[in-house]
Amino acid sequence: MTTPPPQGNPFAQGQQPAGQPQAPYPPQGGFPQQPGQPGFPQQATAPYAPVPPEQPRRKFGFKTIKNIVIAVAVVSVAVGGYIASRDDANQAAVGDCLKAASSSSDRMEVVECSSTEAEAKVLKKVKGHFTELSAETECRKVSDATGFYAETGDGEEFLLCLADA
């Protein structure tokens, strides 16, 4: 008669089949397990991620060029308006000379008094709103005044009492 084989799993941890020596350390499973993820082996990863290919540089397209041209035009208009407004009558002070901005305009511009374009010299500047009658009355009080220029409406309102240049 022969002896039956031992019963149970000989590979279970902590149990050795009969007649085999005890190992100095317990047997290890295949892959180390992460806590909370039983049954799924850990994925092997490369030591670094692959570098994506460099993106081709964009060429200046129509939209980019159009936007740059629009921005330059807006800045040019703003600078031109600022430069043009520096010669307006609202910048005039007593002693400055003026000329008509154009033959069809009632606007005045500051010019050098030595210029042949000078038409009138500012004798007095008064801030405030003036009608034609009140402006004429105010400038009659100024000696040597031969006319006036009043600006009302948008922005600063003022009166300039003028003499011939």
Number of helical elements: 2
The tally of beta strands, per DSSP, is 5
Q: Radius of gyration from the CA trace?
A: 48 Å
Low-pLDDT windows of residues: none
Q: Strand order within the widest sheet?
A: 2-1-3-5-4
Relative helix content: 10-25%
Beta-strand residue percentage: 15-25%
User: What value does the average pLDDT take?
Assistant: 76
Rounded to the nearest angstrom, the distance between the terminal CA atoms is: 146 Å
Largest sheet: 5 strands, antiparallel
**Overall 3D form:** rod-shaped
Pairing-aware structural class of the strands and helices?
alpha+beta
Instruction: List the helices and strands in order.
Output: HEEEHEE
Write the layout of secondary structure elements.
Layout: H1 62-85, E1 97-100, E2 108-111, E3 120-127, H2 132-140, E4 147-151, E5 158-164
Antiparallel strand pairs: 1-2, 1-3, 3-5, 4-5
List keywords for this structure.
165 residues, alpha+beta, five-stranded antiparallel beta sheet, 2 helices, 5 strands, 20% helix
Structural description of this entry:
It is rod-shaped, with a radius of gyration of 48 Å. The chain has a five-stranded antiparallel β-sheet, covered by helices on one side. The chain is of the alpha+beta class. 20% of the residues lie in helices and 17% in strands.
Write a concise synopsis of the structure shown.
The protein is of the alpha+beta class and 165 residues long. The protein has helices at 62-85, 132-140; strands at residues 97-100, 108-111, 120-127, 147-151, 158-164. The protein starts with 61 loop residues before the first helix and ends with a strand.
